Amino acid sequence: MGNSEFSVHERRVVVVGAARSGIAAAEQLARRGAIVTLTETRDGFEGAERLRTAGVHLELGGHQRDTLAAADLVVVSPGVSVEQPVFDEARARGVEIVGELELASRWTRGRVLAITGTKGKSTTTTLLGRMLTAAGRPVLIGGNIGVPLSAQVDASTPETLHVVETSSFQLETTTTFRPWIAVWLNVADDHLDRHQNVASYAAAKARIFANQTAEDWALVNADDPVVSARSEGVAAQRTFFALSGGIAAGFVVDGDWIVKRTVAGAEQLVPLSAVKLPGRHMLTNVLAATAAASIAGATPTAMTEALREFRGLAHVMEPAGEVGGVRFVNDSKATNVEAASRSIESFAGVVAIVGGRFKGGDLRRLREPLSLSGRAVVAIGEAAPLVRDALSDLVPVVTADSMADAVTRGYGLAAPDGVVLLAPACASFDWFCDYAERGESFKDEVRRLVQMKQTSGR
Predict the structure, then answer these.
(1) Neighbours of 10 (CB within 10 A)
(2) Beta strand pairing call for 96-99 and 73-76
(3) Active-site option among 63, 119, 144, 443
(4) Which of 77, 305, 411, 456 has the most CB atoms around it within 10 Å of its CB?
(5) In what order do the strands lie in the sheet with 419-422?
(6) Is 121 annotated as catalytic?
(7) Mean pLDDT throughout 343-370?
(8) What confidence score (pLDDT) does residue 83 get?
(9) Which among 109, 73, 111, 113 is positioned nearest to 90, based on CA atoms?
(10) By the 8 A CB rule, do 280 and 104 touch?
(11) Residues 139-171: tens digit of each pLDDT
(12) How confident is the model at residue 329, as a pLDDT?
């Protein structure tokens, strides 16, 4: 729960970045009597007039060192690195620099259940929220997906459960953020265009446990050695989950059930028959959501009911259509190598569409799943030469110059009975504004291909 005594009344607060979380933070600060300036590198953005009406001063076209240095508090959006030189003077003056997640958590009245990890955050967060809703609890879902935590503050009550997806960018700017239940799913090479190395990336993730106490819960993936090591010595009650089943106590898959193991035996929680998500790696997300929901007091009946109705998220292993015997699957949210690898290994006869804006990692790690199930790769975007260099001696690699071209080439390589899988392993910002736009483009092109084949009778 937050700190109701934290006040920004008549304090000069600068919000850096006008993405969703920055706008939500600026609005919340203005409502609480702060003197708010929002700075943005763009010359304009959607929602600007709404902020001006709320009394927020806008400084567009770049972040000004003097503005930041004169602040009493600086709030950064997740997409803004606090390592930029423009922050140096403010930091030297002792100005507190926090992220939107940290700011909002100081005012929330309900308890926070936070989820982090390199892959699976959104699926786990959404499923956990649905399980708790099915259990009759008042739930608000958001954070790194959907609604920023700042936009939930006004609706927060002592009974509210905030189920919050948290990224490394959000966690690295936390100082007091304290989840009641914190879930760390996994860690792999990602965001190395922002973090100095994998160790600093993992350290940012580990901050999810930093302020917990013995009254809180730290849910840890025992199958991930980095997560296990980084969680040692936490103050919270450390509890394990493991898809491998290799733990004596905690949450595991045992036969046809997800169970909770204790010294007294195993309690059956959710039957695997209720899982409607493709890919074995998705079971880790289901397992983690079940563990957190169980700790939060959800009944097995409520968890099972929610799971039976859950078909996954858009752009996450999402069926996108079929032409003849060729299936199309949209996993645009697989924006790192590890996520793409798990996606590829979930299908046989895969033609993977890989590429975009490279953000670090080793594309050669896609070789193992491709050697088992891959037919070919279609390379797209800025990373196409890197994709070719990493994989062309293993499977055929062709380059496409648009999403339409990628879908057409993928279909030709996958026919008559394969799977064309959008699993980019890269960010989307070369061709698209985000992974969702990329996924929608893929689905649009698949629909066009379906219509064309139907019209031609082939």
Answers:
(1) 9
(2) parallel
(3) 144
(4) 77
(5) 318-323, 326-330, 419-422, 350-355, 374-380, 397-399
(6) yes
(7) 95
(8) 86
(9) 73
(10) no
(11) 999 998 889 999 999 999 999 999 999 999 999
(12) 97
Name residue, tokens 């008549």.
Answer: 10
Share of the chain above pLDDT 90, in %: 87
Q: Which residues of 22-46 are buried (b: 16+ CB within 10 A; e: fewer)?
A: bbbbbbbbbebebbbbbbbeeeebe
Report how far residue 353's alpha carbon sits from residue 355's, in angstroms, rounded to the nearest whole number. Answer: 7
Q: Residue 385 is which amino acid?
A: P
Residue 152 contacts residue 110 (beta carbons within 8 Å) = no
Q: Which domains are present in the chain?
A: 12-102 (3.40.50.720), 108-308 (3.40.1190.10), 318-452 (3.90.190.20)
Catalytic residue among 63, 119, 121, 333: 121
Check: CB of residue 95 under 8 Å from CB of residue 126: no
pTM for the full predicted model: 0.85
**CA–CA distance, 306 with 304 (Å, rounded to integer):** 5
Task: State how far the Cα of 269 lies from the Cα of 291, in Å rounded to an integer.
Answer: 9
Q: Give tens-digit pLDDT for 33-74.
A: 999 999 999 999 999 999 999 999 999 999 999 999 999 999
Residue with the larger pLDDT of the pair 458 and 214: 214
315 is catalytic: no
- Residue in the block written with tokens 């926070």: 112
Q: Are 267 and 249 in contact (CB under 8 A)?
A: no
Q: Which two tokens stand for residue 442?
A: 């893929």
Selected catalytic residue, list 63, 119, 162, 191: 191
Q: Going by C-beta distance under 8 Å and a sequence separation of 6 or more, which residues neighbour residue 94?
A: none
Q: What is the mean pLDDT of residues 417-421?
A: 97
